[in-house]
Amino acid sequence: ISLDPIYLQDVKNIIIGSIVNIEDITEKVRLENMRSDFVANVSHELKTPLTSISGFVETLKLNEDIDPQTRNRFLGIIESESNRLKRLIEDILLLSFIENKENSLVDSVNIYEVFIEIYDMTSYIAKSKNIKLTYEFSDKSIKVCSNRDYIKQVFLNLIDNAIKYTPENKEVHVHVSSLDGNICISVKDTGVGIPEEDIERIFERFYRVDKARSRDVGGTGLGLAITKHIVKSLGGNIRVKSELGKGSEFIVIIPQKNFL
Ligand code: ADP
Predict the structure, then answer these.
(1) Is 156 a pocket residue for ligand 1 (Cβ < 6 Å)?
(2) Residue 214 Cβ < 6 Å to ligand 1
(3) Would you state the pLDDT for residue 181?
């Protein structure tokens, strides 16, 4: 509640009343807290790789006669932490871009064509873990009104996660269909699964079930937050079904009224 009284006085300057503006600022406070949490998280996430980079650079500078094997190991760490920093900055910028362009529906996008564009890249990553990446489209002419890159990003994030959190020699299946006026994209894996208590939270920025695992597989903790924002900007929703140790299925529904 915000109290900022205006006093009413009579001709003799005697206060005869006051006007108080009462406003519910719960939502404002909630948004402000979210904003400051995000800034704190971003600072922490950026500082971690930076501290590591400057630490190893300093060590290399102070120890000129360090053996080549150790030098190469340190340089390798500096390289991977720099790449991590780059991915983080790209994801933070992408999230802020999407947040500011909620309604940038610009093109009639054929979902199958977009999927095929990213299939080569994702199946290459899947192959490196001997994961079988399969797909099925009930109709290859399904279209949605969207920014093309948004649909690409949704596929990339969900398939990339499915591969990241699935052990070697298992399977990931993508299924796209249109049902009751909606487009349905399902990405199903046979991976580690998500504990029930974490399911609601995985779409929050920087929330990871297992921070160390996410870091090891190159995650930024922003992929699902980005995906959810995109899907919402298209008027759709995203949900997940998961069983620990058995696998997860991410289901995206986008209304077809978005057709051009
Ligand atoms: P990250 O970059 O850490 O993968 P995301 O926002 O993409 O960040 O995902 C948030 C968290 O949700 C991940 O750290 C992981 O714990 C969990 N997660 C996402 N996708 C899957 C999946 N297919 N299987 C199991 N856990 C998943």
Answers:
(1) no
(2) yes
(3) 84
CA of 122 to the centre of ligand 1 (A): 16
pLDDT tens readout for residues 21-35:
887 888 888 888 888
- Residue 33: Cβ-neighbour burial (10 angstroms; 0-12, 13-18, 19+): exposed
Query: Ligand 1 in contact with 221 (CB < 6 A)?
Result: yes
Q: Give the residue carrying structure tokens 């079904």.
A: 241
Task: Decide if pLDDT at 105 tops 70.
Answer: no
The residue whose CA is least distant from atom 4 of ligand 1 is: 219
Is 126's C-beta closer than 6 angstroms to any atom of ligand 1?
no
pTM for this predicted structure: 0.84
Close Cβ partners of 147 (under 8 Å, ≥ 6 residues apart): 101, 104, 105, 106, 107, 109
248/148: higher pLDDT: 248
